[in-house]
Specification:
2 copies of one chain form a homodimer. Chain A is of the alpha/beta class and 354 residues long. The first copy, chain A, has 3 domains: 45 residues, 434 Repressor (Amino-terminal Domain) (Orthogonal Bundle), CATH 1.10.260.40; 137 residues, Rossmann fold (3-Layer(aba) Sandwich); 133 residues, Response regulator (Rossmann fold, 3-Layer(aba) Sandwich). Chain A has 13 helices and 13 strands. In chain A, strand 10, helix 12 and strand 11 form a beta-alpha-beta unit. In chain A, helix 5 runs parallel beside helix 13 and helix 6 runs parallel beside helix 7. The first copy, chain A, is elongated. Chain A binds a DNA duplex (16 and 16 nucleotides) through helix 1, helix 2 and helix 4. Chains A, B: One of its GO terms (molecular function) is transcription cis-regulatory region binding.
Chain lengths: 354, 354
DNA sequence: CTGAAAGCGCTTACAG
DNA sequence: CTGAAAGCGCTTACAG
């Protein structure tokens, strides 16, 4: 490596030009009180003139502060281990930045228990050192209450997985759910003829207030209104146990011998794959969501044909990094970052990065 | 942010325990000469004991050296602007790390002119300050000669876009070409019936030595040998002008009125889309490669049905970052990083990140 | 073979 | 309202 030529740099140069000490420069840099308007204006001018950019390394090295980030996401549940993946993303980001004195405190709630969400938000709000927050706002009303308090305290927060636009988070990292449904629909249009029957299957305890499912379904239906139509049958399964799914599907498959394709609107597609495997039916195409271990197994066995996935690990990773960059560098962050909507099948699955 | 408690840290603590100065500690840390075996051993032991990790920020701040990276990739050509995208990735990485005294010097060669490649490698080798190199090894023999010289000089290099495994680069970032062909084939299996005719179309000046095309084609053919077969016709078009492509396709389409699908093995798929548009034929499915502006236009018009893409921008971005991390942190790098093989259609294209 | 000292570009008490 | 000085954890001449 070659030597760097030397020039008087940074705060020193500013101080020299403004004929003040570097401490005073530092004060205006951080907008701290105790500088006369006159010197402040002068220094600000020089900063602009020089297009001064602080050296982050030096700043970090000299500072003795720890940045405290908090996260609140669902814990993995009996129904799906989906939330393991975003948690990995949090760890990944944490590993990258812990050198710079960043701590991440992780809190979890139960997807099927609104009360647990409320309790966790209360636990978090007891802390006094919250510099930033990452949140999966599964319960909308409660998430609004929570983030309102954050705003009052001037704590920046980012949403992942689903958005609440009116809360004006620092950033949102997650899918565009409507287009996710459209993406599935467009693919399915290629896989079916007009006469083919398509089953849209929602499997979740609380479908009617599940924003994810509802929006995807809207996008899906919208697509087939605008494009060559298909015969679409919708079924809602509120009991997510395999026994219940099996019972319901048996009836459906029996009643509809020429069912061509089943589209499951979330990661529970593995339950359907298991059923199809058990009855030995391989001529029904099956499409679902999320790159999870048991889904991948069924994909490789040929029971699931396509998985749609929106990089849940990267969502959380980017969320943490956005908070970090905002707090550390005062960098502006992208308001909405929609994840790519990935189409995975048996032959490209081995290279997928979640 | 909360204050950090203070402990004696790093080189100072090591020096204290070893009863030497920090300069000596620094010497063994960097494996520099001039330390007695005895003190060296002692210091090494303490380093291990403490599980000492150097503070990169401090190291960077104190060092007055500039890291010099070189890149050699094709320039954009009349046939495709594909190579604009990796170049963006180089700029993206450069922007992130230029704060840390990294310079990236960019060299380009003409994809259709082997001599230009040789000339550029010679220009690069005239430099004496090469810390690392990123290379798209389009001409295999010449790339071997070049990287052999790099090895002699102890310069680490990474490959992008295509690999030469026996050269043992620091890393490779690019597609697994064989599986890329298989991915296209698997998708096409869903889009066709056994009786359908599929045209595999290679459009390039030098198909017979185009590693990319050949390996993709192998993967494609292999898939249909292992799985339910299709009638596949292969055509090689060595003249990449639109006039020539048009002429050849007119003949093919006329001779084969029930042609069902055309698969173009590289980014030249836009030429075929243009042709299909001109003759007003919308019932032939069209699949090709790469997320480039004119391809996307045809995708949105419904003339191209699917694009396969392997994140060329990210390839170059990761390549530069790998060199940087290796040189800066002495981090081990992944030998082979195969990019995901992405499937893009009209409805998910707007969220794709190249 | 080894060490004392200055410096990288900042932040942080402390003193006035 | 302002400045001098020490320090963050390293690297780099320089002296012996």
């Amino acid at each position: 490596m070659e030597k760097k030529e030397k020039v008087l740099n940074g705060v020193k140069e500013i101080a020299r030009r403004a004929k003040v000490s570097i401490a005073t420069v530092d004060r205006v840099l951080h907008n701290r009180a105790g500088v006369s308007e006159k010197t402040k204006a002068k220094i600000l001018e020089i900063i602009k003139e020089l297009d001064y950019k602080p050296n982050i390394l030096a700043r970090r090295l000299a500072s003795s502060k720890t940045m405290h980030l908090y996260t609140l996401i669902p814990e993995r549940s009996a129904e799906t281990d989906y939330w393991d993946v975003p948690l990995q993303g949090i760890f990944q980001a944490e590993n990258e930045i812990k050198l710079y004195n960043v701590k991440v405190s992780k809190f979890f709630f139960d997807m099927n228990d609104k009360q647990s969400f409320i309790e966790q938000t209360k636990r978090i709000l007891k802390e006094t050192d919250i510099d930033g927050l990452l949140l999966a706002p599964a319960f909308v009303e409660e998430a609004i209450t929570f983030t309102e308090e954050c705003k009052r305290r001037n704590i920046p927060f980012v949403f992942i997985n689903s958005d609440i636009p009116q809360q004006k988070s620092l950033s949102y990292f997650g899918p565009n759910l409507f287009h996710s449904g459209q993406t599935a629909a467009h693919l399915i249009q290629y896989l079916t003829k007009e006469a083919d029957k398509v089953l849209l299957l929602n499997i979740a305890k609380d479908i009617d207030s599940d924003h994810h499912i509802l929006r995807k379904q809207e996008g899906f239906m919208h697509y087939f209104q605008e494009n060559s139509p298909r015969t679409i049958v919708t079924e809602n399964l509120y009991d997510t146990s395999y026994a219940a799914v099996k019972k319901a599907l048996s009836k459906i498959v029996k009643a509809d011998p020429d069912l061509h394709l089943i589209f499951v609107t979330n990661s529970r597609v593995a339950l359907v794959a298991r059923f199809l495997k058990e009855i030995g039916k391989k001529d029904i195409l099956l499409i679902g969501y999320d790159f999870l271990p048991n889904n991948i197994t069924y994909l490789n066995e040929g029971l699931i044909d396509f998985l749609i996935c929106e990089k849940p690990q990267e969502q959380a990773y980017r969320g943490i990094k956005a908070l970090y960059r905002f707090l550390m560098f005062e960098e502006d962050q992208e308001k909405e970052y929609f994840m790519p909507i990935d189409i995975i099948h048996r032959e490209n699955q081995q290279f997928y990065k979640n």
